[in-house]
Design brief:
The structure is a single chain. By secondary structure, the chain is of the alpha+beta class. The protein has 5 helices and 9 strands; from the N terminus they run E-E-H-H-H-E-E-E-H-H-E-E-E-E. The strands form 2 sheets. Strands 5-9-8-7-6 form a 5-stranded antiparallel β-sheet, covered by helices on one side. A hairpin with a 5-residue loop joins strand 8 and strand 9.
Length: about 210
């Protein structure tokens, strides 16, 4: 497990196989919808879901001790329990990258997106390439795009080829990209962090739509 912070947002990650002391009972305490989602999953996906929810619970509890962590993952399109997690008073984002799960937790005043990819996942590049009519991004750039569309809230309802990443040139935030998305007035700040070894990890912070 590892952890770092950027601009008031905490990002933590862990290997799902190392999960201990967190099970279906803990998920049920987060809300019935969370338990319903767990029951839809099996194998590695189930383990990754548990690990992500455990990280969320532990990070949120730091602020107020024995807080009961209630999550809402209702899909905004169909009403199913598979949407992105939300909770009162904080902004959340989760990413699964095969052997790793990453979670970002920040203030409710911002919208977050986190994405992690194993750099050795060469087949992922082949999956991404058809989405781009011109040059396809490398995996690090792909995590920046995916983090940005998550922070925007529309996800891949946005064509990833229409996301423009520009390095901030004003000197105010070295190593930060501005992500410009279609039909969005304000750009989103994106940074690729020095996270887990062998992975690209990017965090996006934007204003809520």
């Amino acid at each position: 497990m590892g952890e770092l912070a950027w601009q008031g947002v905490t990002v933590a990650w862990t290997t799902p196989s190392r999960l201990e002391g967190f099970d279906a009972t803990d998920v049920l305490a987060m809300g019935r919808g969370q338990h319903e989602r767990l029951l839809q999953l099996g194998g590695a996906q189930r383990q990754g879901f548990l690990a992500g929810r455990a990280l969320i619970r532990d990070l949120l509890r730091r602020g107020d001790g024995e807080r009961v962590v209630a999550l809402d993952s209702t899909c905004e399109r169909c009403g199913g329990p598979h949407g992105r997690p939300r909770t009162a008073g904080s902004s959340l984002s989760v990413s699964h990258g095969d052997d790793l799960v990453a979670v970002a937790v920040g203030p409710a005043s911002v919208s977050l997106g986190v994405d992690v990819e194993p750099l050795a996942h060469a087949s992922r590049l082949a999956e991404i390439a058809p989405l781009f009519p011109a040059d396809a991004p490398d995996l690090a750039a792909w995590t920046r795009i995916e983090a940005a569309v998550k922070a925007d809230g529309r996800g891949f309802a946005i064509d990833p080829a229409e996301v423009t990443l520009r390095v901030r040139s004003d000197g105010s935030a070295p190593g930060v990209w501005s992500a410009v998305l279609p039909h969005r007035r304000d750009p989103i700040d994106v940074v690729t962090l020095a996270g887990p070894t062998g992975h690209a990890l990017s965090l996006a912070i934007g204003s809520p739509r």
